Amino acid sequence: MSEIAEREQGIVYCGYATLLADILEEDMDQVKRHFGFPVEHRVYCLYCGDRLPRSRQSEYCSPKCRNQSRYIDVACDQCGNLFKRLESQVVYHIGKHGYQHQFCTRSCLWKWFGRRYGFGVHPEHARHSTRKWNYAVIWQLHLVTGLGALKLHVYLPSLPLGTLGYILAAMRKE
Ligand SMILES: [Zn+2]
Ligand SMILES: [Zn+2]
């Protein structure tokens, strides 16, 4: 095989192994070994940069580093603080809604939401309609946070879980 063809094949292997590693949530080197792709010898941990133990057949020095590598820094939309969030979660919500606001704490979420939509700490009671609960506000909250009924219920304990589920389902149809 020519040098160029060999290199190109290497790039294809590399891209394919990355994809498989993401899908299988496995270390890249493990995936490469399993599927018989060429494995380059890695000396340092991908996350912390420490030297890898000889015996360790992984890209990370420890399960902790492997776990940490799944988180990315995101900035809070209210206060600007950087905090960690699972990369897969961020990607999932962006894929689902095209965007996602990030908040480091519940209080930042409420501050941002209140300022933007013009009410205080109990948006579920904001009265702009004849309904007992303000469906539009709850729907906005769902879109902005990417949270489903179960998690919204944690933020809005005064609103029964069943009602929340009903409101989201109703708004989805509108
Ligand atoms: Zn490490
Ligand atoms: Zn914040």
Describe the structure.
With 174 residues, the protein is mainly α. It folds into three domains: 3-35, no CATH class; 70-123, no CATH class; 135-173. 52% of the residues lie in helices and 6% in strands. The chain has eight helices and two strands, in the order αααββααααα. The protein has helices spanning 3-24, 28-35, 63-68, 87-97, 106-117, 135-145, 149-155, 161-173, and strands at 71-75, 82-86. It has a two-stranded antiparallel sheet with strand order 1-2. A hairpin with a 6-residue loop joins strand 1 and strand 2 (82-86). The longest helix has 22 residues, at 3-24. The N and C termini lie far apart (60 Å). The mean pLDDT is 76. One zinc ion binds next to loops.
Gyration radius from CA atoms, angstroms: 23 Å
Per the principal axes of the C-alpha atoms, what is the gross shape? elongated
What percentage of amino acids are in beta strands?
5-15%
User: Termini, distance in Å?
Assistant: 60 Å
For the largest beta-sheet, the strand count, sense and barrel status come to: 2 strands, antiparallel
Strand order of the largest sheet: 1-2
Mean pLDDT: 76
Based on secondary structure, the structural category is mainly alpha
Bound small molecules, by name, code or SMILES, are: zinc ion
What is the number of helices? 8
The total tally of domains equals 3
What share of residues is helical? 40-55%
Please trace the helix and strand order, writing H or E for each element: HHHEEHHHHH
- The parts where pLDDT drops under 50 for at least 5 residues are none
Number of strands: 2
